[in-house]
Amino acid sequence: MAATSQSTILRVSRADRLIDYLNFPPTRSEPGHYVPDWRYCVRICGIEGAIELSTVDRGSGGAAAANEIANNRAPHIEVRDLTMAYGAFVLMRDLNFTVRRGDVFVIMGASGCGKSTLLRNLIGLMEPARGEILYDGVNFTKATPEAREPILRRFGVLYQSGALWSSMTLAENIGLPLGQFTDLSPAEIRDIAMLKLALVGLKGFEDYYPSQISGGMQKRAGLARAIALDPDILFFDEPSAGLDPVSSRLLDDLILALRDSLGATVVVVSHELPSIFTIANNSVFLDAETRTMIASGDPHELLAHSTEPRVQEFLTRGQAGTPSEKAHG
Questions:
Q1: Which of 57, 111, 125, 197 has the fewest Cβ atoms within 10 angstroms?
Q2: How far apart are alpha carbons 43 and 54 in whole angstroms?
Q3: How far separated are the first and last CA of the chain, in Å rounded?
Q4: In order of start, what are the domains of the chain with their CATH numbers?
Q5: Using one digit for the tens of pLDDT, what is the confidence trace for 20-35?
Q6: What is the pTM of this model?
């Protein structure tokens, strides 16, 4: 089923009025627990201005609808001949792949293959031993620090542990990048922080500290901070790690909803198969044995057609051979 949407333009003057409007029928209701119904996606155009509210029918799922959701399918991230190394030890070599605008792109592979290292290279925390990374055709690897700054401003990052400041409330954590990189007043920053927390289902938790909420809520608070500056690209490092199955699925739904509403490209490091098959429409598979990538593309297509035994072993949890072996088995 094709994805369809209906839009309504809503005018608001304060974030608290918008947050009241966001109280859609919850997917689960418990005392002190708020989870929005993510069939509803909200695009924020400013504290004072137009709010576009879209009701989205995902049809067969977010991954299947991704190509229809993204209108501009131009390359957003290009990795060319990338080699990653720690000193003389080469971790991965000859990586070549393209992430198109609007993709949910998963970096997958066995533990220790270099997934998180690749993410650190993509966001500039590590420099590649060889090769190039381009964003919208601009060479990020060769750019000066001054030229990198506007590119980095377009990133939002959710770290594996959430990486919230323990001495700051959730609202203060979300407001930190806003205070550093914008000229907004403290009251405006507070409004935006409330709005972002509401978007990830944490309305009412603005003044809680990270130690006072659950691990799943910490992940959602980290996600709220990642979207504080309305990024073009979201990077997630093992977002489902340590979560129970229900919380993991809710986080998957939230990632897809934010991708749809923000129009962002999403890059996810994961080896969680349920999440991979739920959210991804593109991927790269890193192989520790050969120290390079051995497959790329939609994980569903790789499962159906890849002839690489290690790809099939990974995607089936070691329970199946290659497509030809299954056909003759």
A1: 111
A2: 8
A3: 33
A4: 62-154+231-327 (3.40.50.300)
A5: 444 433 333 333 333 3
A6: 0.75
